[in-house]
Amino acid sequence: MDYMQELIELLGDERVTTNQTVLEHHSHDESYHTPRLPDVVVFPQTVEEVSQIMKLAYARHIAVTPFGLGTSLEGHAIPYEGGISMDFSQMNQVLEVRPHDFLVRVQPGVTRTQLNKELKKHGLFFSVDPGADATLGGMAATNASGTTSVRYGVMRDQVRDLEVVLADGRIIHTGSMTAKSSSGYHLTGLFVGSEGTLGVFTELTLRVYGIPEATTAARACFPSVQDAVDTVVDILSAGIQVARIELIDERSIRQVNLYKETSYPESPMLFIEFHGSEQSLAHDIEFAQNIAAEHGCQEFLFETDSKARAQLWDVRHNMAYAFLHKSPGKKMMVTDVCLPFSELAGAVVDARQAIDQSGLDGAILGHVGDGNYHVILMIDLDDSDEVARAEQLNAHLVEYALSRGGTCTGEHGVGVGKAKYQRIEHGEALDVMQSLKNVLDPTGILNPGKIFGA
């Protein structure tokens, strides 16, 4: 690597490394996709350093893959062409909180939990909760969402402005601090979800919210997945302002009982959270409870105390760990599709049938309040037949979603895992995306292989 000395001159030898352990840490994310070592890992601290690194990479045609915490699920952070893995862990400052504007400026390495700890001092919170304590730069790169998107929207809805370093080292801003603008192209929306293929984020201006006066969580059990999903659709149709509404099927509950040594009813469950005033919540909870009863709800429990709410959500938040802990030697494959509400119930029922027919061990859960659901599969990557069946099942779920007006990914992003479905989903619009990529990254150095494939 003849450019190694240039990187050391720029950053110092402590922030440029080829240490094998560090390389391996940056060779994978939390997905099942095949790891690949980068050639070098760098740790920039300023936008100027990022710009200089990109200028060097642009001149030498060196691949650059941004890295946050490696929590992505479709291989986004895997550097399949080697080159530079750019780690943002040292760009982790909350730069400015503007409570009267409901805005915050952060560096890309700030995590969701870190931000909310700082915002709490001002009576504010950041709404997007993907489950993992991901970095905000990575969340913007994949247009992350999660449990609260049914009420507050996804990552793209929260980003007002991005500071972006382009492939050739130019530094641009994509938006402003205003609530709206009719000036020029909506570049912020273009870069959010671009997965590091159009530019590298070095600063984000984000929308934040006031902490609600009251919060109540509820857990409702149903005789079937169909009943649970129908309840979700009716609750949303009634205009009840739920902040979260999550589905977990009976297989998932059984796994949590094994892992936590609990005795939750092994039936499909909805986990619901309401935000608002004391008076409004009382009405919303009663209304939701009546709707659930119409669909055969067998148990409806709710809690207002923060510790009790945390225990109520314990099942949902421990799902992945429950499967990992009880499946030694296996890797978790998590699918992710999204459909129109009218198609959701049929999709979830079809997914359960497809899992059973595949002979694999799998569970269904997800953010059904916005049409998004996941299937968790535990697979042995050394068993080629098992891997093939898992991939066939994943393909079936995607094809079902696309055939009914859905998308191959509601929040995990494309990465390498969903690249093969992009032409089917987008048609000639994929060519437009490729054209934009070619303009902004003419030498193809920005996270190569992602979205468009190899």
Automatic annotation (TrEMBL):
This enzyme's EC code(s): 1.1.2.4
Molecular function terms from GO: D-lactate dehydrogenase (cytochrome) activity; D-lactate dehydrogenase (NAD+) activity; FAD binding
Source lineage: Bacteria, Bacillati, Bacillota, Bacilli, Bacillales
Every FAD-binding PCMH-type domain range: 34-211
The keyword Oxidoreductase belongs to this UniProt entry's keyword annotation: yes
Cited InterPro entries: FAD-bd_oxidored_4_C, FAD-bd_PCMH, FAD-bd_PCMH-like_sf, FAD-bd_PCMH_sub2, FAD-linked_Oxase-like_C, Oxid_FAD_bind_N, Vanillyl_alc_oxidase_C-sub2
Pfam family, any one: FAD-oxidase_C
Essential cofactor(s): FAD
Protein name: D-lactate dehydrogenase (cytochrome)
Record's keyword terms, sorted: FAD, Flavoprotein, Oxidoreductase, Transit peptide
Organism: Brevibacillus reuszeri
GO terms (BP aspect): lactate catabolic process
Family recorded in the similarity comment: Belongs to the FAD-binding oxidoreductase/transferase type 4 family.
